[in-house]
Amino acid sequence: MKFKTLIFLAVAAFGLTACSDAWLEEKKLDQNRPSDVSMQVLLPAAQAGCGMLQGDVLPRLTSIFMQQMTGTDRQSLAHNRYAQIGEGDFDTPWGNTYAGGLYDLKLIIDKADESGATAYSGIAKIMTAFALGILTDHFGDIPYTDALTGANNLKPVYDSQEDIYNTIFTLLAEGKADLAQPSSIVPGTDDLVHGGDLAAWAAKADALKARYLNHLSKKSSYDAAAVIAACDDALDAGAYSVMRYESALNQNPWYQFTVIDRAGYISQYGTMYDMMTASSDPRISLYRSADSLEMPAYGSATSDLPLVTPFELYFIKAEAQMAGGDATGARESLEDAIESHMTWLGVDATDMATYVAALPATTDLELIMNEKYVAMFTSTESWTDWRRTGYPSISAPSDANLSDIPRRMPYPEGEYLYNADNVPMPITATPDDKFGVTSTYRLWWDS
Fold first, then answer.
1. pLDDT by residue (tens digit) across 8-62?
2. How many CB atoms lie within 10 A of CB 84?
């Protein structure tokens, strides 16, 4: 009888175990897709994503819009006349930024707040400001306050661009303040941009503040003195930030497109090169190869991708000085900007001096912006500058699909599919409306 009882208990125990899948939990975990990762893992992933935002789809299109390069094959050829650019083209930069970079940065901030890792929260806030700035300068109103909550809210409302700009300035101030506090842990090699140099991140915050304050040059709130002060703070702190690429597994995105993935789609011709040729610019051979298909200084496999640089800050300062009536100071800053850029590229000192000496004697906004247009090659800032100032003086091609040069991007197709009630532009809007050629959906700071 005792033996039968033991058998019954054993069978019952087995049955209870068999009805539970607790023993399977360890086997069900995918070690390649963990449910939680550390800040040290999240940070480089977020930075890589921001690098693609700065160096992939968006700058390729705006460089063509700005006639800094020319599409010569397939869809890139059509892009010259603003054709074959639709909502679906923006799903990748939008989706990767929200589901990847921005979400990872939010996780970093949350984890850092819990653990007292103010160094990580400071960096993440500055990077969030950087990513939001690129998105809003292309699309205008974008989700943020109501976004980045995962499955809790798959249809976030959009913040106005004015509110996004206020958020950018708040994030930069908070990020810089966080960096000044004691931190329980400080990044090292997991920081792909500055290697854990917190002073460099603080300088980057000042540089971004100068950039975004200057973007408001068409608004009544524009404050030239504040722009100059932010430039001086950043320059004094040695602001310089690039994304570095070092190997076959980590290649510059321009190289990936122009050499590996889509060789021959884009060539280095256009208005910018005509201007450089006319001024005997010594940088031409560094911008384009002999066949005009590759970009030696900007698009080799290991070329650095500029994020913020001293030469951009000197150009911003020169523009603000002109706005404040200081033409003498603007001339000094303009020459500093050109020399800083040429030095960064490795231009011979004699060639540099010859070029600067040959500049027009009169310093005005057009000269400053034309020189910045050349120096900011591959950056979407050239498009923003043209929308703000009208320089360089360019016009749409005669066979363009729009009535003028695009001033914004359409919202991504995915937003119309899954968040249509909140998208602040109807899918039925005309092409001129979608690209901001008309004033109906033009960006806040561009109106």
1. 434 444 344 444 555 445 544 555 566 688 999 999 999 998 888 888 999 999 9
2. 14
C-alpha to C-alpha distance for 228 and 207, rounded to whole angstroms:
11
pLDDT tens digit sequence for 179-191: 999 999 999 999 9
Which residues fall within 8 angstroms of residue 289, CB to CB, at 6 or more apart?
268, 295, 296
CATH number where 184 lies: 1.25.40.390
- Which domain does 179 fall in, by range? 37-196+400-447
List the beta bridge partners of residue 250.
Answer: 247
Query: How many independent structural domains does the chain possess?
Result: 1
Q: Examine residue 267 and state whether it is found in any structural domain, yes or no.
A: no
The partner residues of 266 in beta bridges, in order of sequence, read 71
175 Cα distance to chain centroid: 18
Which strand (E) or helix (H) includes residue 243?
Answer: strand 241-243
- According to DSSP, the residues that pair with 247 across neighbouring strands are 250
Instruction: Name the residue among 403, 421, 431, 404 with its Cα closest to residue 86.
Output: 431
Beta bridge partners, 70, equal 267
Look at residue 251 and tell me if it is in a domain.
no
Question: Tokens for 193?
Answer: 């941009």
Alpha-carbon distance of 98 to 131, in angstroms, equals 9
138 within a domain of the structure (yes/no): yes
Radius of gyration of the chain (CA): 25
Write the DSSP assignment of 255-315 as a string of letters.
HIIIIIISTTSEES-SHHHHHHHHTT-TTHHHHS-TTSS--TTTSSTT--EEEE-HHHHHH
| Spatial CA neighbour of 254 closest among 281, 283, 287 | 287
208 in helix, strand or coil? Answer: helix
What residues contact residue 314 under an 8 Å CB cut-off, 6+ apart? 231, 235, 333, 334, 336, 337, 340
23 domain residue, yes or no? no
* CB-CB contact of 212 with 133 (8 Å): yes
Most distant pair of Cα atoms in the chain: their distance: 112
164 within 8 A of 102, measured Cβ to Cβ: no
284-309: pLDDT as tens digits:
999 999 999 999 999 999 999 999 99
Distance separating alpha carbons of residues 70 and 58, to the nearest angstrom = 15
